[in-house]
Description:
This protein is mostly helical. Helix content is 64%, strand content 8%.
Amino acid sequence: MLGKLIILMIAGLVLFGLLHKAASRLGLIKPRPAPPKTGRQIDIGGFRLSKFNIAMLCLVGLYLVWGVTQLLR
């Protein structure tokens, strides 16, 4: 049950991200101008972690931990 909930949360987050990107491309919402670099984003070798990336990494990590606990139970 928990695995299904995690997968649904991942799918919902991906769907929200795609809809937001499509809406900004269609001109339904104003895209924010690129802010100057701040200390809130982590840069590792040219890869920038945004809030969306961090949320997806956390959900996928939670799903993997849940899966391992199910295998070892």
